[in-house]
Specification:
Strands 1, 2, 3, 4, 5 and 11 form a 6-stranded mixed beta sheet that branches. A 5-stranded mixed beta sheet has the order 8-7-9-6-10, with helices on both faces. It folds into 3 domains: 87 residues, D-Maltodextrin-Binding Protein, domain 2, CATH 3.40.190.10; 77 residues, 3-Layer(aba) Sandwich (D-Maltodextrin-Binding Protein, domain 2), CATH 3.40.190.10; 89 residues, Alpha-Beta Plaits. The longest helix is centred in the C-terminal third of the chain and has 12 residues. With 284 residues, it is an alpha/beta fold. β3 and β4 form a beta hairpin. It is built from 9 helices and 15 strands. The protein starts with 5 loop residues before the first strand and ends in a 9-residue tail after the last strand. α6 packs parallel to α7 and α8 runs antiparallel to α9.
């Protein structure tokens, strides 16, 4: 008897995270959780084998708060997945686009459709989840209220597509991290790899410049760097970086040694070393 693997996602059935689970591991069972912390905890306690974690969108930027949860989750990145996001404007049966007054969706979904909504004169209303908004619009049954969500959500909740491709940008993609309890480092080979770190610096002049210098002198390309405040005092900044390369390569080890020299004790967290997604190498 084969084992059924499970993967956790934040939201309700029909969410884009649900779509990402289906695309990345169609043979796994996708399990919905209300919050990001609940999704991560499901993996921590063994309820699920992995979590599908959204981290950034090509149109709206970073997914709020998720970076704060990752370092303390105890989980490790084992893969990345880029999911195309094709928003639909969904209404109840018989609704007309000209009569829509409100569009309900997650703040990321609304941000990705801001210009179109302004052009249509539709008021954006923040909801906790895209598919959850579709579920509620179906429940309300009001022809003046619509949801911005996926085609999958329209099928699940019995809504009509009032406007296809309501997204402002023609190319709209969300990057997800697949996370598990155990780190799974790929073998060093010709296959490109990525590493992700979170760190806090010592308070010395030009600390960030000097800490990142090790990556430059060792020929390592940083593909993402972000900072955010950590703690209640608003004084200590955390930094998150993605970079090309394998954790076991000598140049990566040298860069990490230099990074740690400028960081607080035990303040460098290696979140994962994982294969680079083929999406990164597609022609733009």
């Amino acid at each position: 008897m084969s084992t059924i693997h499970t993967i956790a996602f934040q939201g309700v059935p029909g969410a884009y995270s649900h779509l990402a689970c289906q695309a990345f591991c169609p043979e796994w069972k996708a399990v919905a959780y209300e919050s990001f912390s609940g999704m991560l905890r499901a993996v921590q306690v063994g309820e699920c084998d992995a979590a599908m974690v959204p981290v950034e969108n090509s149109t709206a930027g970073r997914v709020a708060d998720i970076h704060r949860l990752l370092p303390n989750s105890g989980l490790h990145i084992v893969s990345e997945h880029f999911q195309p996001v094709n928003h639909q404007l969904l209404g109840v049966k018989g609704a007309k686009l000209s009569n829509i007054k409100e569009a309900h969706s997650h703040e990321q979904g609304l941000a990705q459709c801001r210009e179109k909504l302004e052009m249509l004169g539709i008021t954006p209303i923040i909801h906790s989840d895209t598919a959850g908004a579709a579920r509620d619009v179906a429940k309300w049954g009001e022809p003046t209220k619509a949801a911005i969500a996926s085609k999958l959500a329209s099928d699940i909740y019995g809504l009509e597509v009032l406007m296809d491709e309501i997204t402002d940008m023609s190319v709209n993609t969300t990057r997800f991290l697949v996370m598990k309890k155990q780190m799974q480092v790929p073998e060093i080979s010709l296959e490109p790899a990525h590493c992700t770190f979170v760190f806090s610096l010592r308070s010395v002049p030009a600390a960030l410049y000097k800490a990142l210098g090790g990556f430059a002198t060792n020929g390592i390309n940083l593909t993402k760097i972000e900072s955010y405040m950590s703690g209640n005092q608003m004084q200590a900044a955390q930094f998150y970086i993605d970079c090309e390369g394998h954790i076991e390569q000598k140049n990566m080890q040298h860069a990490l040694e230099e990074l740690k020299f400028y960081c607080l004790p035990d303040a460098v967290h290696i979140l994962g070393c994982y294969p680079s997604s083929p999406h990164r190498h597609k022609p733009r």
